Amino acid sequence: MKRIELDGEHFTLEELYAIVFDAAQVAVAPAARKKMLASRAVVERVIESNSTAYGVNTGFGKMASVRISPKQIQQLQINLVRSHACGIGAPLSEHETRAMLALRANALAKGLSGVRPVVVETLCAMLNRGVHPVIPSQGSVGASGDLAPLAHLAQVTIGEGTAIYKGKTIRGAQASGTGQP
Length: 181
Fold this sequence. Notes:
The chain has 7 helices and 7 strands, in the order βαβααβααββαββα. By secondary structure, the protein is an alpha+beta fold. It has one domain (about 5-40, about 85-175): Orthogonal Bundle (Fumarase C, Chain B, domain 1), CATH 1.10.275.10. Helix 1 packs across helix 4 (about 95-110), helix 3 (about 75-85) crosses helix 6 and helix 4 (about 95-110) packs antiparallel against helix 5 (about 115-130). The longest helix has 20 residues, at about 30-50. The radius of gyration is 17 Å and the shape is globular. It starts with a strand and ends in a 6-residue tail after the last helix.
């Protein structure tokens, strides 16, 4: 089976099907890695210049006018994931979770979000290893409706939450590769 390279630009329904149902292997395309590094460099420059950037060094929503100190920026991002992981209900199926992982990895691979390439590489590694975050089927934060499910997905990438691996529930630290399943 061929490996599917995610670049944020060219992703077919057939490729999504192969990832979701045939466990096709995925990787970050070299061009996408370059775009993500360039986008991340913008975020780093904003932080270094002490400019204000919503959600990077400010609070969110009504807290947008509150500046976050450089020492607290990483904790802000972790707290955001934790605060939005508020879903309930039966978990999404393995196929639904695989689709969500693949689609999020491809969207981030486009290189417009400022994430480090390791984020997309982690999502790809989880798909390739058969690690599936436990994502509740109900729950929403904000108007987009995807923040709670995405937060549960993100929890595993930062070593929190839970995932299913070879039919067993494991801690996020084991699932994400920060520990061993």
